[in-house]
Fold this sequence. Notes:
Elements: E1 4-6, E2 13-15, E3 31-37, E4 47-50, E5 55-58, E6 65-66, E7 77-82, E8 87-92, E9 104-106, E10 111-115, E11 118-124
Parallel strand pairs: 5-6
Antiparallel strand pairs: 1-2, 3-4, 3-11, 5-7, 7-8, 8-9, 10-11
Bound molecules: zinc ion.
The site of zinc ion has 8 residues, from loops.
Amino acid sequence: MEESFKCxxxxxxxxxxxxxxxxxxxxxxxxxxxxxxxFENIKEGTVxxxxxxxxxxxxxxxxxxxxxxxxxxxxxxxxxxxPAEKYFEVHVLGQNRQKFEKDTYRLFDDAVIPIxxxxxxxxxxxxx
Length: 128
Ligand SMILES: [Zn+2]
């Protein structure tokens, strides 16, 4: 998975560790997840900022977003960013596929992503 990207304001290289560009100081967050149904380790209302990168979500600690929930598998799903076209899609992994009509779907504003017993709401950040 790609771990760096170019700032869309100034073109400087950025990585997963910075939510704002060290060169031009502008915000790099392109989308957000808001927890609307809590998990064991994530409270309702928690906001997770997303950079234009892909994210793995699951119970294992090797994921970018770790969720503690007995109904969440080790590699549960992935959020895949398409930076050029400016959208994210969800890839449902493993046995979780049975619960969804498709194993890949595009995310639109206010999409609800159910994961185990909890869920997130997804929104794009409108660039200023
Ligand atoms: Zn920049």
